[in-house]
Design goal:
With 343 residues, the chain is of the alpha/beta class. The chain is built from 13 helices and 15 strands. It has an eight-stranded mixed sheet. Strands 7-8-9-10-11-12-13 form a seven-stranded mixed sheet. α9 packs antiparallel against α10 (255-263). It is globular. The chain starts with a helix and ends in a 5-residue tail after the last strand.
Length: 343
């Protein structure tokens, strides 16, 4: 096909697809219930299949983002999740792979709907430092955009994020941090030394429940917080595969990188440990995320999981970017799909 004809055909195809792309709103089309979308299922290690950690919990068309790793806003766009639907961001801790995309998540929400209040960022002590720093980093950008588009289109009063810090009381392992209609969000302490506190979150809505671990070792406090949940989204690594990468780095003379990789296993659970936690908490299903190291070949998935599937007899998945786990209210069903490339 001659180049000019190919270009005209491509233009016609894009013109035909644009109306559907512009009006797509899968979050608004979901049935009543609790829905967990995996925006980023990877880690700081470069991975062509997975972006940095981020989840989006959708209730009644509202999106509550848990962490915002690098690539979060771009992957949400691929999932056709409207940034204008974001109600709040909840932070588990402040490792770079959990905060690297927060600035662009806020930017996309602001320009999507300038009439909404500033984006609340809810988290433990330190949230204000992260938010203040990012607000300052984006201050010039906000000024440029207001100057270009005008304050009637992009509200200069709502472009900076609103940090909302909470502290779990001494002697307690959890507390309710957000209530929105029938939705209750509870923060709980997990073990991710030397970070203190590191948190996970439990979402309860009309008889359905989902737990997002954040980053943690095998954690009794997580098991307690996750009791009876329909879905547990738990981070995990493979010590065997990670040590293989570490040894390869050492053999290549990359001694610092090798030691950093060797240090990782002492603050993340393995897949079998995540399965143990799921079994002991009596959850309905387990999705493993924050995959370390990357799995470039599908055959490595069995090595990564080891005997996890023998330890937990419910549905168990290695999460992928774009995965959607739906828990319809008034039901005990769990439906799994993927929002990337669905159209």
């Amino acid at each position: 096909m001659p180049g000019s004809l190919r270009s005209r055909v491509s233009l016609a195809l894009v013109r035909k697809q644009l109306p559907g792309l512009m009006t797509a709103d899968p979050a608004g089309e979901l049935p009543d219930g609790l829905h967990v979308a995996i925006v980023g299922s990877g880690s700081p290690l470069p991975d062509v299949k997975r972006r940095n950690p981020c989840a989006a919990v959708i209730v009644d068309g509202k999106i509550f983002v848990v962490d915002a790793g690098e690539g979060a806003s771009e992957t949400m766009a691929r999932m056709q999740l409207s940034p204008g639907r974001i109600e709040a961001v909840l932070m588990t801790h402040f490792h770079s792979d959990h905060i690297g995309g927060l600035g662009t998540v806020n930017l996309q929400r602001w320009v999507a709907d300038g009439d909404r209040p500033a984006l609340p960022v809810i988290g433990p002590p330190g949230t204000d430092r992260v938010v203040d720093g990012l607000n300052e980093a984006y201050a010039l950008d906000r000024g440029y955009r207001v100057g270009h588009h005008g304050p009637d289109l992009v509200n200069p009063d709502t472009g900076a994020m609103d940090a909302r810090v909470f502290t779990i009381p001494d002697g307690e392992d959890s507390m309710v941090v957000l209530e929105d209609g029938d939705l209750t969000v509870t923060a709980f302490v997990v073990q991710h030394p030397p970070i203190e506190p590191a948190l996970g979150y439990r979402f309860d809505y009309r008889g359905r429940s989902a737990v997002i671990s954040g980053d943690t070792n095998y954690s009794p406090t997580l098991i307690e917080a996750a009791q009876g949940a329909d879905l547990l989204v738990h981070d995990a690594l493979s010590t065997e595969l990670l040590m293989m990468v570490s040894e390869a780095a050492r053999d290549a003379g990359l001694t610092t990188r090798a030691q950093i990789l060797a240090d990782v296993p002492d603050y993340h659970a393995t897949a079998p440990e995540a399965a143990d936690a799921a079994r002991e908490a009596g959850v309905g299903a387990l999705a493993i995320t924050h995959i370390v190291p990357p799995l470039p070949l599908k055959g490595l998935e069995a090595i990564f999981l080891a005997d996890a599937e023998e330890r937990f007899d419910g549905p168990l998945w290695l999460a992928q970017d774009g995965d959607l786990y739906s828990l319809p209210s008034g039901s005990d069903q769990l439906e799994r799909s993927n929002l990337i490339g669905r159209r």
